[in-house]
Amino acid sequence: MKLTTRSRYGIRLMYDLAIHYGQGYIFLKDISERQQISEKYLGQLILPLKSAELVTSSRGAHGGYSLSKRPEDITLFDIVNSLEGTLCVVECVRKPEVCDRVSSCPTRPVWEKFDNTINDFLKGISLESLKQNEGGESLMYNI
User: Fold this and answer.
1) Residue ranges in 1-143 assigned as alpha helix (H)
2) Distance (Å, rounded) from C-alpha 9 to C-alpha 28?
3) With the CA atoms of 42, 14, 16 and 70 taken in that order, what torsion angle do they form, in degrees rounded to the nearest 10?
4) pTM for this one?
């Protein structure tokens, strides 16, 4: 499984908004410069983040984007899920109807546990925890 640039860049976008949380609305142009991601691509990412109610926007001279929740209330799972849809390592874990062997498959419990572990891991990392790690010290997470 590999996360797409949508998720990786989306997390960087949200991280930037978390760093500037409480400072008003932030222009995509400024995020683009700081994160070295094209403004056009950020514009594509912001729409599903707004739809997921993770980001709010304001128009006008003092407009831009801001987190709609506190950084500690937004997890990497929230971001990835809004940009990629449900993460799932094997389709039958979320959609048992796609496989005739679901009830007798010896590996399905392994994929279910793997899937749950990944999702729980992402749910355990908030934007606030990323902010706190700004100094470069390694985050300690157990999978």
Assistant:
1) 5-19, 28-35, 39-51, 76-84, 91-94, 108-123, 127-132
2) 13
3) 140
4) 0.85
